[in-house]
Write a structure and sequence with these properties.
The chain starts with a helix and ends with a helix. It is elongated and about 70 Å long. The longest helix is centred in the C-terminal third of the chain and has 19 residues, at about 200-220. Strand 3 (about 105-110), helix 6 and strand 4 form a beta-alpha-beta unit. Helix content is about 55%, strand content about 10%. It has helices at about 5, 10-20, 35-45, 60-70, 85-95, 120-130, 150-155, 165-175, 180-190, 190-200, 200-220, 225-235, 240-250, 260-275, 280-290; strands spanning about 25-30, 75-80, 105-110, 135-140, 155-160. It is an alpha/beta fold and about 290 residues long. Strands 2-3-4-1-5 form a 5-stranded parallel sheet, with helices on both faces. It contains 15 helices and 5 strands.
Amino acid sequence: MNLEEQQPKIFDYFKTILKKQCLSHAYLFSGEFASFEMAIYVAKSLFCTNLSKDNQPCLLCRSCRLIDVQEFLDLKIIEPSGNMIKTEVVRNFIHDFSFSGIEGKRQIFIIKEAEKMHLNAANSLLKFIENPNKDVYIILMTSDANKILPTIRSRCQIFYFRKNSDYIKNYLESLEVLPSQAIKLAELTSTLFEAETLSKNQKWLDNMKEIELLVSSLIANHPKVYLRIAKLSEKIQEKDEQLLTFKLMVLLLSDVDDLFKKDDLLKKIHRAQKMWQANVSFQNALEFMVLAD
């Protein structure tokens, strides 16, 4: 995956600071498009045994290859368990900060979905960020920087990883995904990996066609819309695919010329999604769109 093409401005910035050897100890990466890949690149720059003259990692040495498969001992990656990063998990890692690395002196910690840290965990981390160990580096990752405590944000360098939909679409088309599907998948997903995974999921691709038929029925106020809802609800049982269904419905309405009808349907979809998020069944939430005035 070509970071230089996916996030050219951010990649150029890190090339410069690596060349100058002025890497900061705490970063906040906001946005999911290529942000983890960038974090891994930074990790490689710290441990690569064959750095270029500009201090760029070679990507091929033992350290770089171990980092790629997340088996390098001085790289620690924290992820939520369920829907939370528990305080004891963060405190255990902070305890490790006080020791030198195993492979060398340095260590790097990547915290994915950092907004899911328990408040006590976030406050524990804040204390370390305020007084960092010179050989320890932390990269916090989140879908939205505003979800992170202001006190932590203020002590991190923040980078915003905006999605490059054209890059995703072109990449999918290079895999021989149909252009019409590639466009929709590029808009629906946040990362290249997610888009590629869905493009290989024939069940989801078939469901996309059913969702398009449902939206067409809604726009036309077709009498068979309930049958389409029942059929779709039977096929789409997983929560993540149900969420994608709402997103795709909104996306498909972008082509509607009648602004009043579009606005009305968008409001209905939004209310239906809120009901679904409040544990109303997927089918009942969809049927609400037809029943609502």
